Amino acid sequence: YAIDDTQTELGVPCDIVGDALDEDFKLRARWYNFYDKDDIIAYPLKGLSADYNLYVDGDFEINVGSATTSWNPACHSGYWEDKDFYRPVATFIGELKADHAIWQD
Q1: pLDDT tens, 25-55?
Q2: Is 43 a member of any domain?
Q3: Is the four-CA dihedral 80, 89, 8, 49 of positive or negative sign?
């Protein structure tokens, strides 16, 4: 379960949007959960509770890792090197960048 410093109870989603962000940025923030079924510390979050159903915008099962790790728990280190993860994440960041002054010089 995802928890943050202010929570002591498991099963309650963490606050994914920082207080320092502008309101329009907060409204566009999304919680996209990517997981590999072979990754023992990653799993679908929707369905865990009504709160997770509300906060998580999508669970996406992908296959990460190399030929020697994609089938076992070592796959956890492969997300940032897998196009099924970094392409949708980069696209979303690009969409945020296009509409928000935080990225402008």
Answers
A1: 778 888 899 999 999 889 999 988 888 898 8
A2: yes
A3: negative
Q: Which domain holds residue 31?
A: 23-103
Domain for residue 71, yes or no?
yes
Residue 39, Cβ neighbours under 10 Å: how many?
Answer: 23
Written as six digits, the tokens of 35 are 């997981």
How do residues 49-81 score in pLDDT, each as one tens digit? 888 898 899 999 999 988 888 888 888 888 999
Number of domains in the chain: 1
Predicted TM-score (pTM) of this structure: 0.75
Which structure tokens are listed for 36?
A: 């590999």
Where is 61: in which H helix or E strand? strand 58-61
Measured distance CA(1)–CA(94) in Å, rounded: 28
